[in-house]
Write a structure and sequence with these properties.
The protein is an all-alpha fold and 255 residues long. It is built from twelve helices and no strands. The longest helix is centred in the middle third of the chain and has 29 residues.
Length: 255
């Protein structure tokens, strides 16, 4: 006899397969999601590169920061998918099925995490091609990738909740704009010491800065700092807040 936990996993996997099937029908969207951060990496590495205040090779500093920044990009795809399902009556059809509450959201998040993992692989490959080098151990590198995916997971559930609050696809773009300051007001491109004191303080407290610094540290790249505890605490705290909020809001929308 299936337990509630087994049913939840089975339903979530079914919804994940549904989202992955969309990739085959919308390959351009997937490709754009992979190419956009690569364009930013090349642009900042070659066109705007220089790294004022950065000690060491700027590409080695930039790539880990861009990997962290990539974890904030592309949220609008998931947010739009959630709002479209809500507005097209897809959720109403799921309500009539014997499905675990929240499986739709978990399936959506699982598909997003798979694409995020693919983005990390593509970005790392491009980084290696333009001169980025890793000096950390194999375990440290795996830990760095884990921190990146943890940050994405946190940003994702925050995005899912905000998408349901927005309610309509046309409002998602406005909500997505709020994500950009989080990304660019970080140490992804340069060190906070080159900024005005008040701005540097904001950057230091940005969750993305903790992840970028820790990833650089684990990769053995310049500008790194052992802030792993903070890089874990920030995303875990965000998930602890937004995951239950998202599931609760979805349950209310389902009645």
């Amino acid at each position: 006899m299936s337990t509630p936990a087994v049913l939840a996993v089975t339903d979530s996997w079914t919804m994940t397969r549904r989202e992955l099937a969309h990739w085959a029908r919308q390959p351009v969207q997937v490709v754009v999601g992979l190419v956009f951060p690569v364009m930013l990496l090349v642009m900042f590495g070659y066109l705007i590169g220089g790294g004022k205040g950065v000690e060491g090779d700027y590409v080695d500093f930039l790539v880990p920061g861009m990997l962290a920044l990539t974890m904030a990009f592309g949220l609008e795809t998931t947010m739009l998918a959630v709002t479209q399902d809500l507005n097209k009556g897809v959720i109403d059809r799921f309500r009539s099925m014997p499905m675990t509450n929240g499986a739709v959201l978990v399936g959506r998040s699982a598909a997003d995490m798979l694409q995020s993992a693919a983005s990390i692989v593509v970005m790392a490959a491009v980084g290696l091609a333009i001169g980025w080098r890793v000096h950390g151990s194999f375990g440290a590198v795996l830990g760095a990738f884990g921190l990146l995916l943890l940050l994405r997971f946190a940003m994702l559930w925050m995005g899912i909740y905000l998408a349901m609050v927005a309610g309509r696809p046309e409002l998602v773009q406005a909500v997505q704009i709020l994500v950009w300051p989080v990304g660019f007001l970080s140490n992804a491109f340069t060190v906070p010491s080159t900024m005005p004191d008040w701005l540097g303080a904001v950057v230091e407290w940005n969750p993305m800065s903790a992840t970028a610094s820790s990833v650089r540290h684990l990769f053995g790249n310049p500008g790194g700092a052992d802030e792993v505890l903070l890089a874990v605490a920030w995303p875990v705290g965000l998930v602890a807040v937004f995951f239950p909020l998202a599931v609760r809001r979805f349950a209310r929308l389902s009645h």
